[in-house]
């Protein structure tokens, strides 16, 4: 979407399915607006009519009243339906966009910017959608009245139109500055969201640190809130002033019309003047309503732009991610491979981006591969490339020797179950058959969670657990999914020594016996002997790739040193 106003283009694409309703609403609005103008003409005529015209005037009056009601109710209903449908489509489409967005784009967008788009921006459009029917009808009434003015007298209409154009120009200028304010305020809203996250997620740390608490409260939150309020006040004041000037301008038009009438049209009937005054006074209401809605329209425009930008940024080549999961059963895989793969994070001009690769790595079915290396050496990035979450800048990802491309990438990803170090724990088990429930129960026992958690109607009874316990629950989820490749990113880091030992020496071996391929990111060098192969990363490159047989004697399998307590705990844990 590269049009000069991506917001309008995006909303246009959302409106397209409802074009019949939109058109119907506009036509009905036109009928309503024209009828109002007609009614004013009838009223004006009535002021000068003789007694013989009463019957015709009453009939016209009643007919026009009915048309006004039908027109305005019809256009209101259609605009309301379209407005609400657009909001619903917007919400669904944004959720779909996020579900399909390239993971690296999603990661760099950051949650504190994403959430306001989903809430604030959609709400801004929703607010406008609520007023949109009135906006539409007011617009149509103004147009209808202008047409009636033109019918009454061309010269006076031209003078009026010139003054209205002048007033509108002043409004356009005011609006442009107002919009700049709304844009600025919206940017500060992102900062505010970030600070809100800070006080919610950093509550414990802030409670313990008075200077930092004060800094966050005063320098970050209060300052940002005041900045937003100042910018909004300025923007709205400008529009309100423009509105008052608009009203004065309308009276100016009335005065000018009255003064100029004898000059411009000396032989014209008095009904022209009264008709003009009547219509101009009547127009004040709808014009006021149109101008009054400009701030809301301005905010909606800013919101649309934000939504369009997000939508543009999250565009993806993988468009079938939300298809029927029934076709995506996990299959087995003989090998997964990165061939000549490199990947660089996007970075600002000042920063040097981290570059991974080029990497050649082939993992075979049934292997236990440990990915090791210093912090920041690129282990998680490597895993994300291997999982098909990041698309390589160069090189190929292969499944059983066949390149994985956009069309096959999601099928490929279904081979894996992962527990990332920043994993998200889902409380519901999607597989609900008896066997899976039994496996879940068995592993709840084995991982010493049965006293805290049970499976009820396919949902874990609680996830209010300690950090280590939650990770065990994530492991159970992974186990139950039964996929052929399991990836653990520092799973054991939060476990007590006994469970760490159970994980490396027993659970990994169990999974291997089931024919699983296992990839483990680990810093636990005490248990490196449990791997069939160790891939060591340094600065984004593979530094060593050693199989069990190649490993030097010093690294050969030997039991890790453990305390008597470790051994006792491990014995207890392995009894289940
Ligand atoms: N979203 C991102 N944008 C930019 N750079 C990133 C991003 N994620 C990671 N990096 C950079 O990539 C490098 C490798 O990160 P990665 O998480 O792969 O390391 P790691 O080996 O898993 O580290 P650790 O052992 O600490 O988990 C780091 O220097 C990090 O700063």
UniProtKB/TrEMBL annotation:
Organism, as annotated: Bradyrhizobium ontarionense
Protein name: Cyclic peptide export ABC transporter
Described function: Involved in beta-(1-->2)glucan export. Transmembrane domains (TMD) form a pore in the inner membrane and the ATP-binding domain (NBD) is responsible for energy generation.
Record-annotated membrane-spanning stretches: 21-43, 55-82, 128-150, 156-174, 244-264
Start and end residues of each ABC transmembrane type-1 domain: 19-299
Region (Disordered): 541-576
Subcellular location: Cell membrane
Stored CDD domains: ABCC_MRP_Like
Membrane topology: Multi-pass membrane protein
Domain ABC transporter: 336-564
């Amino acid at each position: 979407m590269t049009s000069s106003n991506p917001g309008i283009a995006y909303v246009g694409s959302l409106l397209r399915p409802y074009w019949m309703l939109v058109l119907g609403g506009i036509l009905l609005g036109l009928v309503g607006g024209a009828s109002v103008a007609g009614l004013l003409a009838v009223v004006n005529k009535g002021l000068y009519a003789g007694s013989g015209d009463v019957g015709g005037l009453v009939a016209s009056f009643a007919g026009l009243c009915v048309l006004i009601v039908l027109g305005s109710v019809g256009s209101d209903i259609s605009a309301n339906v379209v407005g609400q449908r657009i909001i619903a489509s917007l919400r669904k489409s944004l959720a779909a966009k996020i579900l399909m967005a390239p993971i690296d784009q999603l990661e760099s967008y950051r949650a504190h910017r994403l959430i306001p788009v989903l809430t604030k921006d959609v709400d801004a459009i929703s607010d406008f959608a609520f007023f949109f029917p009135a906006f539409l009808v007011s617009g149509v009434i103004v147009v209808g009245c202008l047409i009636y003015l033109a019918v009454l007298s061309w010269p006076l209409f031209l003078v009026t139109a010139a003054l209205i154009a002048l007033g509108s120009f002043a409004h356009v200028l005011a609006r442009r500055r107002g919009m700049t304010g709304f844009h600025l305020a919206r940017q500060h809203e992102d900062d505010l969201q970030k600070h809100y996250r800070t006080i919610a997620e950093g509550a414990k740390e802030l409670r313990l640190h008075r200077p930092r608490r004060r800094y966050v409260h005063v320098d970050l939150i209060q300052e940002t809130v005041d900045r937003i309020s100042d910018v909004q006040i300025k923007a709205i004041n400008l529009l309100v002033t423009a509105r008052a000037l608009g009203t004065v301008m309308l009276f100016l038009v009335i005065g000018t019309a009255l003064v100029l009438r004898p000059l411009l049209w000396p032989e014209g009937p008095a009904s022209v003047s009264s008709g003009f005054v009547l219509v101009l006074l009547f127009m004040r209401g709808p014009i006021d309503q149109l101008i009054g809605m400009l701030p809301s329209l301005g905010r909606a425009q800013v919101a649309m732009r934000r939504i369009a930008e997000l939508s543009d940024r999250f565009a993806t080549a993988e468009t079938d991610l939300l298809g029927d999961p029934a076709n995506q059963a996990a299959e087995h895989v003989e090998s997964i491979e990165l061939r000549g793969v490199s990947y660089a994070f996007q970075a600002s001009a000042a920063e040097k981006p981290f570059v991974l690769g080029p990497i050649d790595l082939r993992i075979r079915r049934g292997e236990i591969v440990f990915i090791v290396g210093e912090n920041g050496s690129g282990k998680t990035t490597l895993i994300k490339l291997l999982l098909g979450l990041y698309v390589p800048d160069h090189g190929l990802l292969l499944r059983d020797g066949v390149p994985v491309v956009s069309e096959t990438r999601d099928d490929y990803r279904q081979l894996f179950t992962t527990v990332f170090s920043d994993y998200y724990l889902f409380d519901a088990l999607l597989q609900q058959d008896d066997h899976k429930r039994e496996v879940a129960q068995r592993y709840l026992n084995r991982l010493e969670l049965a006293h805290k958690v049970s499976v009820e109607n396919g949902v874990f009874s609680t996830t209010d657990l300690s950090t280590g316990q939650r990770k065990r629950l994530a492991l159970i989820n992974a186990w139950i999914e039964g996929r052929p490749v399991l990836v653990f990113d520092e799973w054991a880091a939060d476990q007590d020594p006994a469970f760490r030992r159970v994980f490396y020496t027993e659970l990994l071996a169990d999974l291997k016996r089931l024919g699983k391929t296992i990839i483990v990111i680990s810093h636990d060098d005490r248990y490196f002997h449990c791997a069939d192969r160790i891939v060591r990363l340094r600065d984004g490159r593979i530094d060593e790739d050693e199989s069990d047989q190649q490993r030097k004697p010093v690294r050969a399998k030997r039991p890790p040193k453990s305390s008597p307590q470790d051994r006792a705990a491990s014995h207890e844990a392995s009894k289940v």
